[in-house]
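Deliverable D2.4 — example input (structure tokens):
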């Protein structure tokens, strides 16, 4: 039997409907909307799409959202000075610097920029203070994509406590916070990565398998225990035909989309997994919409905490 497809868009709509009145209430109380500053450096096409979605969603849901763009040639010092300005701005409660940064900025640029964001404005949950709080299970704001996955599981009626969870990928943005959020909900968690031996064997023990590595179709049927829940966080923009033809059969909707557009967003999970998993998030339309709505939620939370702290 084919897996149940978990509709991320419907769950994101549900969360948005809950958050919107709280955003309006904040605006009435504070005399201004919660404010978000997004910084985009360079012209990576995928990042431009994500940032556009974030700005659109913020604007449509009552937030003030400002985009700061810097060219790919910008220096790290220029980027940090934009972040500093947003740190000092009274109108901005949240700051998001879109990852990845251009390679030319240097290998530790991302870490230095995330460190430079004021901890109370860290709506991504990437600042060391936010990460430390998450490790100790007292988060104020946790990373959006993994938090969205938890919402998706809970609202789909998929139990986490006492389940075996395997997370493929150990990034600071998804893999590590994902593992911690699952652990704090009493899953037994294993993190796999590029140096894991017998990855498929380990993955096959999972009741909940999360993949976040950005390798199209990497998770094949042999990685999946029959009936398991599979969460696909991968979103790779594929432009080469060979990859599309390896994954999708001739005449399929996905191949037709590729033929029309010349590119396709592809997850980590191979299409054949639909015949083994019990539940599965599609790409697109699975985790992606939750990432966007969790940013609204995190920005509202940051705004509320700032307002409370000011009243003290
Ligand atoms: N790039 C991919 N996902 C994210 C995210 O959640 N936050 C930021 N800032 N950049 C990203």
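Example output (designed residues):
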């Amino acid at each position: 039997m084919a897996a149940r497809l978990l509709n991320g868009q419907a769950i994101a709509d549900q969360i948005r409907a809950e958050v919107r009145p709280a955003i309006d209430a904040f605006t009435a109380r504070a005399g201004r909307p919660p404010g978000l500053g997004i910084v985009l450096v360079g012209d990576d096409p995928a990042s431009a799409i994500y940032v556009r979605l974030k700005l659109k969603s913020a604007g449509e849901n009552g937030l003030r959202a400002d985009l700061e763009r810097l060219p790919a040639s910008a220096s790290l010092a220029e980027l940090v000075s934009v972040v500093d300005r947003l740190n000092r701005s009274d109108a901005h409660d949240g700051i998001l610097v879109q990852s990845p940064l251009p390679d030319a900025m240097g290998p530790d640029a991302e870490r230095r920029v995330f460190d430079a964001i004021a901890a109370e404005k860290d709506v991504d949950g990437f600042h060391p203070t936010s990460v430390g709080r998450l490790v100790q299970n007292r988060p104020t704001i946790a990373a959006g994509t993994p938090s969205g996955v938890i919402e998706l599981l809970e609202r789909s009626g998929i139990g986490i406590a006492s389940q075996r969870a395997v997370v493929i990928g150990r990034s600071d943005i998804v893999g590590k916070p994902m593992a911690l959020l699952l652990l704090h909900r009493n899953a037994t968690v294993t993190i796999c990565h590029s140096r894991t031996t017998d990855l498929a064997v380990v993955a096959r023990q999972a009741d909940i398998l999360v993949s976040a590595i950005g390798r199209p179709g990497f998770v094949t049927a042999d990685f999946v225990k029959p009936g398991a829940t599979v969460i696909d966080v991968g979103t790779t923009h594929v432009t080469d035909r060979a990859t599309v033809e390896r994954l999708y059969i001739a005449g399929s909707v996905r191949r037709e989309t590729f033929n029309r557009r010349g590119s396709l967003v592809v997850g980590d999970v191979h299409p054949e997994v639909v015949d083994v998993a019990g539940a599965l998030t599609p790409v697109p339309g699975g985790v992606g919409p939750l990432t966007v709505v969790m940013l609204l939620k995190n920005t509202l939370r940051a705004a509320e905490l700032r307002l409370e702290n000011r009243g003290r």
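The chain is about 45% helix and 15% strand.
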